[in-house]
Amino acid sequence: MGHVRTIGFSILLCLFTLAAAQAAPAVGTLKEIKTGGGAAPRVEFIADRQPGEVSCYTMPQLLRATVDIYGIEPGHVAPVVPADTSFIKRVTVERKVINERVLTRATIDLARDAEISIVPHPVDKSRVFAIFKPLHATSAATAPVKKESRKAVASPSGASGKGTVAKVPAGKTQEKSPAKTTLQPVVPSFGPPPVVSDIRVGKESVEIVAQTAIERFTTFTMTNPGRLVIDIAPGGNSLSAREVAINRFGVGKLRIGTYPDKVRVVLDADKATFPVHALQRVGSGLKIVFGPFALGGRK
Question: Do 282 and 194 meet the contact criterion of CB atoms below 8 Å apart?
């Protein structure tokens, strides 16, 4: 009887283990990273399966972009991937676990600030592109350099009666050569902080509307429930409503909160994970694009 109970317990244990294995989300592996230059610098991530989610954000002050590829491990990809373009310096890869979700975090060092769009391959869903649109930094105004001509000062002892002697004002010594000017790094200048004034729901995107492009922001996702959080810092908000119904793309609603140092926008998904999306800067704010779209992205 005891033997039968042992067998029954073993069968139940095996069934429980099998069910747990089936419930656990499968994790893929990153196979290769490619970089490309030209008019649209890009980084291509090739995995052995479709990522569960891809998110990105930029850090203009550090000239750096970060891409999080959920459900994919780095595998045997080198921790540092050198780039063969003048715009992309290198790609650093590491494994992360956020909210019990495995992901590959790729940190991309850039030559200058840029907009970033995450674009899946239209056919092969295991390939994802991070496409950059370089921004031209506005250098700080520099004071004009005054050219000074040097005049020879005739020596009184060697001067002839007809020669003209240049007089040196009393209390002043002869002018010395100007010291070498130290060149300062060019720092991108940003305009006034964006002020969120509207939320527009389109056929394939949700647009956060402001009076200017939203250049500086950070973003991350959460699970159970699925959420996308966007922090706009610095930033303001002129909306009276604190909640906007979306009811599209697998997103139920959008919430917005104002803090002393930032504006936080939260999109709540209908499921435990937030749907695949891409963030795009536009002239009037920021777009969250959902669903399939062309390889070059849509502006």
Answer: no
